[in-house]
Fold this sequence. Notes:
Layout: H1 22-37, E1 41-49, H2 73-84, E2 93-103, E3 109-120, E4 140-141
Antiparallel strand pairs: 1-2, 2-3, 3-4
Amino acid sequence: xxxxxxxxxxxxxxxxxxxxxxxxxxxxxxxxxxxxxxxxxxxxxxxxxxxxxxxxxxxxxxxxxxxxxxxxxxxxxxxxxxxxxxxxxxxxxxxxxxxxxxxxxxxxxxxxxxxxxxxxxxxxxxxxxxxxxxxxxxxxxx
Length: 142
């Protein structure tokens, strides 16, 4: 088995991440990739969940600072810390949740979920210590 990206096999597509859940978004992406390629397709969706904020930013993590700041890590971290206000200084608990979906050509779907718990850090991590591509990872400490 060889793992390839859509770009490597000449497929370019965008899927609107407008689902109500991580599962909805991951499934949309996996099924779109499978339809376009005819190959088994693995896709995911993830986000940061802060109990103090009622579980936000959650499925909207990438847009937490507004749609114009999609993927803008510094803006997303600023928005998170602003939403937390004075509570940010107490390093409130949070979870990073990821749902992965594997869509097979025969229509079968497999899914998995992972959760990493930790605390929000007021000081952002340096680029050399970051291990996630999440736009919220600069405000995260496990």
